[in-house]
Fold each of these.
Amino acid sequence: MRDELLSIIEKNSRIGVNELAVLLGKEEIEVANEIAKLEAEGVICGYHTLINWDKTSIEKVTALIEVKVTPQRGQGFDKIAERIYNYPEVRAVYLISGGYDLLVTLEEKTLKEIAGFVSDKLSTLDSVLSTATHFVLKKYKDHGTVFDKKKEDEREVITP
Amino acid sequence: MTKPLSDSVKSLKPSGIRKFFDIVSEMKDAISLGVGEPDFDTPWHIRDEGIFALEKGKTFYTSNAGLKELREEICSYVSRTQRVNYDPMHEVIVTVGGSEAIDIGLRAMCNPGDEVIIPQPSYVSYEPCAVLAGAKPVIIDLKAENEFRLTPEELEAAITDKTKVLILPFPNNPTGAIMEKGDLEKIAKIIIDNDIYVMSDEIYAELTYKGEHVSIVSLPEMKERTVLINGFSKAYAMTGWRLGYACGPEEIIKQMTKIHQFAIMCAPTTSQYAAVEALKNGDEDVKMMRQAYNQRRRFLMNAFREMNLDCFEPYGAFYVFPCIKEFGMTSEEFATRFLEEEKVAAVPGTAFGNSGEGFLRISYAYSLDNLKIAMERLNRFVERLRRE
């Protein structure tokens, strides 16, 4: 039940326990207990809403920043990652294989604020060797959802 | 022209679905529950493989029986799901949808006067294809109290010395019924004792929600007398690609291939390349879709329970088949009023044979949101009928 439950609520976190129970063919109490367990274990970390900010009047600029760092003795990359992710404007930090070490995503109101973050906060950290900032021009798809695409049902209305 | 057209073709009744189709098409905001094909798009990697085949210029005929690579993949699929081995060179043919396989299979097996046993309610083309093959359809009316499974008693009663083929349409459209191993074993014995062929249409095999699908070919002595039909439409959401196949004894496949060769040449080449990818790397997609269908199936069964609507629990395909006998209307009257008053289209059970009278086929190849609205309307409709 766990995998199926997670795959449902990953797409629809607003679904009620009673409806989940129907879809999974389980009792409500079982489902409620499982969700409580998943939350306690830190498997479920939050219930967020996917927003296409481009459709609002609120300005948001997203940047992806590649960061090269020197890992620290005994701490590896964790210490420097923590220093970076503690900034509230940082949306995500990933340790990456390949040409650089950390991928940091940042969301700010203006380009200037992002530039400020990179030059004043990120680049000045001792173990940061270099950064490369990429600004997001358009989001086509996020969290598995394609923005701006409403699909019409093109099937014949009745078929045998 | 004054010369008459073919009597046997003229004698065929047009599909009972047509009338509804015309009414629904006119209605702007009607919700349809009448579709017999998946709502999912063909998974992208499969479509991409089709595109790639076109880019590479794979635009020629394939061999009559289909791409060798595809036939090998089909055999490996049947082998890993049913533990039955077919020879890709002589025991498989790739067809234009499962429907072509039904047609040429019956034509290859039947002589004039032979009887073809067709359990109903079932898919609309068995009966006309049997007629066109010169055979006489013998209908078995399946019963709700048996969960629309075929029982040994029903089969025995239908067999005569002219019986040639039994059509075995499970998982079933329109009822959603399945036949489990125990059910199949009971009828296999009768089939062998009476020395008849089986055409097992397993197009919905991957959409089984109670254990794994069991094919009758996996039972002893059945492979040599069975034409197994399957295809890509339902499992991989590939209806528009028109691709199916038949596996069977070499003698039968050989005859089928002759008809196919003269009438069709070969199945569409692009589709065949895409289908190779589907069989190679499509298991996860099938699993995802099966899970989604199963959730909707549970949702509908729960909705029927809440509105006290009688419905046996179906474990296959993507249809539920609720009973509407309590309202004292024919299926067609019920479906027509439901459409006119609540703007929801469902297919009357009678479109799939007389034994569908008193039932309604509801397809759940629709999003949950759609089904929710439809069930609200059905609930309202049912309550109103009960007050009348």
Amino acid sequence: MDDSTDPTILDTPAEKLGASRRLFLGLAGAGAGVAALSACAAGGGSSEEDDGEAGIGTGEGEVSEDNPFGVSGEQPVDVVIFNGGYGDQYAKDAGTKYEELYPDADVKVSSTVNIQPDLQPRFIGGNPPDLFDNSGAQSMNAGALVGEGSVAELDPLIEAASLDGGTIKDSLIPGSLDAGIYSGKLYALNYVYTVYAVWLSRKQFEEKGWTLPVTWDDVMTIGEAAKAEGIALFPWGGQNASNYYRELALSMAIKEGGVDVQKKLDRLEPDAFEQDSVIAAYAAIEDAVKAGYFLSGGAGIKHTEAQAQWVTGKAVMYPSGSWIENEQKGITPEDYEMVGVPTPQLSTGGAMPAEAIHGTAGEPFFVPSDAANGPGGLEFLRVMLSREQAQNFSKITSSPTVLKDTIPEDAFGSTALASTNEMITAAGENTFHINHRDWYGLGPDTVTLWTEFLSGDLTADEAREREQSMIDAVREDDSIEKFDVPE
Amino acid sequence: MTSITTEVPSGAPVRTRGARRRVTPSRVLFFVSFLGLPLLLYVVIVVWPIAQAIYYSLTDWRGLGAAPEFIGLANYARLFQDPTFLKALTNNLILMVALPTVVIVLAFALAILVTVGGSTRGEIRGVRGANFFRMVSFFPYVIPAVVVGILFAFIYSPNGGLLNGTLGLIGLDPGIAWLGDPNFALIAVGLAVVWNLLGFYMVLFVAAIHSVPAEIVEAARLDGCGRLRLSVQVILPMIRENVSTAAVYMGIVALDMFVYIQVMTPNGGTAKSTEVISRYLYQTAFFDSRFGLASAMGVVLALVTMLMAVIVLFGFRRKDV
């Protein structure tokens, strides 16, 4: 994602990802009530009581194995794509494929960076597109769309047969639908998968004879070796992205203590930051700060400058999402060989295996319930969710989709994408996601706190106490809607 | 200020008041277009939003469709218990005192230099090349605040930034991340603002100094008044009105600061060292979607601004004028 041309006021890709989901959830909570979300988080499956009010009926075409939604071959299909970091070529290619399947259909794939200004009037006017990609700084209120019944359920889509055989549901990465489920029903199909990992240069590691880290002790060993060569271990952007290290710390804690650690954090429990594994994780970061492994001057710079320092060899590794390769395109040296390794383990006896990853899906696609050709919209998504189109997307954007096993061995020459894919495959069901920061808008406050912590101005215990009082304040504030975390 | 004369010039035809008040279509049109329309616009786009903001500050509105609930002064009570808000308010007050003082002192000094700072012999004039300096010092003002913020973020960068680089040349590179260090960040941002706006106030003062009658300055000089005394005791009192206007403008800038803070320290700085009300308000409204609380912040900021303007304008007023 090219930050420099992105008009959004949010600074880091993580913030953007978080903000879109926060808006989504905040509005869902306000629109459909908190109960809706608690049910949503409880997962899908109970769609029996669904009376189909927001569903899309079958089209005028004949329903068959090859045409599960009864798409009429003559009807045009209108798709609107957010033309952001991923561009719109992948959707145009999917449109070409749709035309192959339905040669008489008029396929219109348009793209915009202003989803909300362009589409809101169309919703009000009753002529929404058949499918749209609700992404970017100017996306529509997803919660309102769901709450007002403006978008259709997508359960029929994932139950349908994939173009490659089997159901679509079975072809997806485990957990990748979660972000689009409301009240137990799927409304958004998040197409892109993001893995949070620690990124480094494989070439550098090979040259120095270092092994890729699995545990935090490995990380510290590399830190010492790097220090001896006058390189820092971690770059950091204290002005807006120091909380990338919070993600690292909490992910380490969750891998050590299991998903219950995450649930306690997301439930804002009074002792969430007193959990043993959280204490250990913060202490681990403090050790690295005290050892001088964080690149000096980080407090004064933004993530862009910090990441530039990293790929130009001033620091060794960086915790971030899998967008990082795409974001650093153009700065990263040709032979850098960027790869990601899963969040390091605090100890080898942790609750989750070394392969466990922090992963989640983004880039939500909706089918409006008033769409002129709803079945066509669903069919278009079905095309996008085919192996061929998913591979095409990954090839164009160096990013994985929610379809599993679609990235070839060579990952189209991208070492980062290959490693992302390996991490996803190796993790299997061992994935988790941390929600409370985005749910309750703690981004800015965690940044300023973590910059203090990583500057060495706070001890790990002080940082944890401050984090605890931050979530205590949210929990005790009745004016903030709370989201339920399933057992 | 001279009082406005109300006498009718003796040569002009005398009209009765009744004739003046006759309602004719053209008079109606005149009042409607010159008084009614602006008033309507003012009410609709200024008064009404302010009234709305005050109303919302008494509610728990979240900026969504749901009807807001009236909660009295709870938002205000909450604000004054919120350490981040108090920090922001303190920072704003510090800036409100420091920025106008620094800018006005420097701008006045520079204005004196380019107007009466030259040779004490012969005609009163500025230092050699005054015109050039006057022009050059105005340049920063034409740069938008956003650009100034970005430029200064580079200058303050701990990695080869101009400031640390220059200090390094004389062997003093302290390796300080200026914008990230809670001890320096606010000063660093403040200096960028001074650099940005100094030229404008200098030009303002230059124009004011030119309007001081030359005879007075010359008379003072003939009486043996030095340049320092001339500027502080003769010129400064005569441009007092301009100085007070400048103080109000700078005070408003200091109470806002949004662009500079947002660009240079996007989250309010390490440990909230550069947090200001406007940025915190923005975060509260558009990130946390707590429009009621944000409106309360806006109301507090507006009150502080008005109070500052009143104090400055009355404080500079003199009985003898």
